[in-house]
Amino acid sequence: MAVSAIDRTPWWSSLNRAQWNTLLASNLGWLFDGYETYALIITVGVALRQLLEPAQFAQIPFYAGLVIALTLLGWGVGGLIAGVLTDYLGRKRTMVLAIAAYSVMTGLSAFAWNWESFAVLRFLVGVAIGSEWVTGASIVAELWPDRARGKGVGLMQCGLGIGFFVASFVWLFIGPLGPSAWRYMFLLGVLPALLTLWVRRTIPESTLWEGVNERRQAALARKRSGEALADQDQALARFTMTDLFVDPEVRRRVILAFLMSLATTFAFWGISTWVPPYISGIAARAGLPAPQWASYAGMAYNGASIIGYAGFGFLADAFGRKPVTLFYVAAALITVPLMFLFTHDLGMLLVMAGLLGVFVSGQYTWMSAWLPELFPTRMRATAAGFVFNMPRLIAWVGPLISGWIIANFGGFGRAATAVSLIYIISLAAAPFLPETNGKPLPD
């Protein structure tokens, strides 16, 4: 009867201030990452016109794809490292380090002097950005109650969409400031450094992690003293990245989730990158201002993605992780060709860009909602970081491939539709993962 009474109370009434503060900190960290990432997408063409020689302007789509791809590659590297650090140093401490590194690297990228320096700095920014998601997803999942966990991580994940939207909105005002406007966009990215001061004061460390860390330290001490270790202690004493592949069930989950993450990530970067230039190009051919329409497209796509991110979490708590994930992926597979091949009116293109934002971007929440529930605390961040970021070491070529197709075959629509076929992998893998909705996190 007590459980039934709890279930009938509004989900938000059971949350304390520390849990809300943790969500806010994770959301803001991801928001600033989103701002900086989309600032690159909408300014990379302007930046390269200043950093490349005029004779190279015809190949700007290729160089843009290369710079974005290197950012994504750095994201993958940083995320893998951060996943391990989060399991060993703690969720809160790693979050503070990630936000500080992101702020410094973003500010430095505003001072690039040629395309090569810009590309290197963007890679380093990617390393810092990649460290943020795994800390936020882990700590929100561990601090929020079971019945509201999907909502919590969905609200955290929508920070990326809010950041994307803010970048599109800010560019409306900074874009007209001249050839160096892109530098001002990146200088604004220094501001999140202030967030680290608030995070250190107001959010707690995960008690689940603290308990596991104490047991890990004890197991390591026994190992150093030469004692024989029980199975659980052996698992705690193993390097977390190695631990992912020892247990057959954990290994199976890692592989299936990796394939799904690869599909989501490869498609996102191979499709969403080109929404603003695609719509702005059609607007330019109609005699309308291209930069303005690029901002409209970005705001339509990213405004709707906020709904997609948060909506996924609420739907996943109501209907389950698996069916909602399959729905989002199938909807994305259908929506991509509808926009890029069959829609030509500018107004309808903005509508379709919104639908694309809901499903292509919004499906990312499956990783925030599902991954922490698939793996035990001792390796949770390492596993989530591996699944979320390892595909970027492959998917970073998505923008590069799309840019090459566009530059050589003149087809945004063909490139985006071809890339979207990778969603079939996700549709095939998802049914084999267990449903975890409403269940306690595995210890």
Question: What does this protein look like?
Answer:
This protein is an all-alpha fold and 443 residues long. Helix content is 77%, strand content 0%. The protein has a single domain, classed as Growth Hormone, Chain: A, CATH 1.20.1250.20. The protein is built from 22 helices and no strands. Helix 12 packs antiparallel against helix 22 and helix 14 packs across helix 16. The longest helix has 35 residues. The protein is globular and about 75 Å long.
Produce the secondary structure layout.
Layout: H1 2-8, H2 17-51, H3 60-89, H4 91-109, H5 115-143, H6 149-174, H7 181-187, H8 193-202, H9 207-224, H10 231-237, H11 240-243, H12 248-271, H13 275-285, H14 290-319, H15 321-340, H16 346-361, H17 365-370, H18 380-389, H19 392-395, H20 397-409, H21 412-420, H22 423-429
Look up the CATH topology.
Answer: Growth Hormone, Chain: A
- CATH top level assignment: Mainly Alpha
Low-confidence stretches: 1-6
Order of helices and strands: HHHHHHHHHHHHHHHHHHHHHH
Portion of residues in helices? over 70%
Estimated share of beta-strand residues: under 5%
Q: What's the architecture in CATH terms?
A: Up-down Bundle
What distance separates the N and C termini? Answer: 26 Å
> What overall geometry do the principal axes of the alpha carbons give?
globular
Kindly report the average pLDDT value: 86
Give the tally of β-strands: 0
Q: CATH H-level name... which superfamily? A: MFS general substrate transporter like domains
Number of helices: 22
Category by helix and strand content: mainly alpha
- Total domain count: 1
Q: Largest beta sheet, briefly?
A: none
